[in-house]
Amino acid sequence: MYSHFMQDQHEAGHKGIFLAGDDVSWTPAWAEGAVQTALNAVWGIMTHFGGGSSTQNPGPGDVFAEIGPLKLPE
């Protein structure tokens, strides 16, 4: 759920729904998780409608490859 805002790999019919709140974060029941997922969702909505972040202040999706969850080997 945490990385659902990264929708570039989704099929067209599965794009456009963005969730936010502490219940979809790594820190449930904390305001920090709600704020973090809200920022992620706003970035997702912005890019969904063709917007973008400043190169001087990249959004969470712009740096997701560096800060996102690690993919563990099988």
From TrEMBL:
GO molecular function, one term: oxidoreductase activity
Pfam families: Amino_oxidase
InterPro entries, sorted: Amino_oxidase (IPR002937), FAD/NAD-bd_sf (IPR036188)
Domain Amine oxidase: 4-45
Domain of life: Bacteria
Name under which the protein is recorded: Flavin containing amine oxidoreductase family protein
Species in which this protein is naturally found: Mycobacteroides abscessus MAB_091912_2446
